[in-house]
Amino acid sequence: MPQITFIAVDGKHVTVDAKNGDSLMQTAIKNGIPGIDADCGGACACATCHVYIDGEWVDKLGEKGEMETSMLDFAQAVQDNSRLSCQLLVAESFDGLIVNIPESQH
After folding, report:
1. 49 CB contacts (<8 Å, ≥6 apart)?
2. Burial class of residue 23, CB neighbours in 10 A (0-12, 13-18, 19+)
3. Cα 58–64–69 angle (5° rounding)?
4. What is the domain partition of the chain in residue ranges?
């Protein structure tokens, strides 16, 4: 099971076991990670699951799809490493992934 670390704005780290095939958003919700609201339930119809991917991981997760890119227009403080966590499906290769929660979602 891959382990993923979520980092809150205050620097608090929470490392969780993630189930392969779940989205990063589902993993956050199942583990009570604050700041991942997922108002649309993972349908890529909002941007309330916006996260920042740690720099070394950005290129390892594949490119953003057109719909994800479009929805990120609704997120605050978008950066080059911004992703919608509903669009990232956990795989073994995610082991060690570091995800930061944007300040705007706390």
Report:
1. 24, 25, 28, 36, 37, 38, 42, 84, 85, 86
2. buried
3. 120
4. 3-105
Q: How remote is the C-alpha of 96 from its chain's centroid?
A: 14
Tokens of 52: 């920042």
Q: Which residues pair with 50 in a beta bridge?
A: 84
Identify the pLDDT of residue 101.
Answer: 96
Q: Give the residue among 19, 23, 6, 20 at the shortest CA–CA distance from 105.
A: 6
Banded pLDDT at 12 (limits 50, 70, 90):
very high
What pLDDT does 24 receive? 97
3-105 maps to which CATH number?
A: 3.10.20.30
* Torsion, Cα of 24, 12, 101, 26 (10° steps): 20
pLDDT digits (tens, 9 = 90+) for 40-53: 989 999 999 999 99
